[in-house]
User: Fold these one by one.
Assistant:
Number 1:
Amino acid sequence: MSSIMRAQQDMLERMNQYAELAGGSAIQPAAQLGSGAPVSGIAGSFEQALRSVDAEQHKSSSAMAAVDSGKSDDLVGAMIQSQKASVSFSALLQVRNKLTGAFDEIIRMPL
């Protein structure tokens, strides 16, 4: 077998491996991996918000991938979905920063 054919065979094997990895369910949104029992209180609310933002990020990624691969021609919809994911992530970061600041203030309070 010539070196060119060997290189082509190696590249074909790698492409098949990547196709198997891309088609598999190794990476899933956090909303699909839940334990089933909802947690109440502030922790449950924050976890629910975190899972919602994660689901938005995955929707955005799949919409952009569909446009990039040519499976969809809805560029405007993909961009809107991307902006929704960006805004929800920014809002989550703001909430996290406010909670962290409040926690720091509580820690510094004199007894």
Number 2:
Amino acid sequence: MRPDLIRLHILAAVERHGSMAGAASELRYTPSAVSQQIRKLEMELHATLVDRHPKGVRLTAAGHLVVRRVQAIDHQLDALSADLEELQRGYTGTVRFGVFPTFAAALLPDVVIGLRTAYPRIRLAVHSSRISPLRELLDEHQLDLALTWDYPWNQTPDADVVRRELLFDPTVLIVAADHPLARVDHIDLADVAAEEWIVRAGGHPTAELLFRCAHAAGFAPKIAIEVSDYQETQAMVAAGLGITLCPRLAAHQLRGDVVVKRLAGPIPTRRICSARIRDAEFTTAAQRLEGILQTVVDDYSAI
């Protein structure tokens, strides 16, 4: 039988005061009630805990051993209360965070450093993936917070998800450093109608971005090559095989033999949001992370 915690604390009070009466006064019991609780505790532990004598009581070696354990339990409970308070205040805990590769390569280090600096006891568990797997992990409650991105034409309402807009990532043009456009300050899409283009393969949204922009500018883009990622895209651009459109964030790690050019006119931008499941717990630690995210993207936007 496990000992009753209240009776353990009664024994500790007896040890503090050296008498049943003193413990009774502290705990607002009668001395006889204290004595009865001690006897029940002795039965539970199968040990004699106090020596009773005419002038009071004295704890036995077993009694002192029990009180030391009670004190250790009290310290652990105090530590538990402190830990829970820290968790509720958002200074500890683990946040499971999903990011997509272009954000991870460009801004995730700043997010991690910012979080560690401001809240060093919050642990960040990062999962980097494309958007669809991240959404599945959110649905399965395996992520607390994830980043998503979309364009105006594929933004769909979702009652199950709470989104917070963090950044509107502008569309930029990447050309080879020796391309004539590299020396032009303002480029309109109509000016590049005759160029060949390099696009992301597999129906990537940036390919649709190019076709929509080209259609609005009155031309059909000539696709030279389809590639699998942005670093490969830059290599093809550097080799003079074409030019490309991409989000500015995707051009964060730029080769020395290509340049980024801003486009004139109303060009669609990529919206980046933080996302969480509406009915899932949104811990204070996760809220702290979202605040750090906003600071990092604000600093990036100001550049």
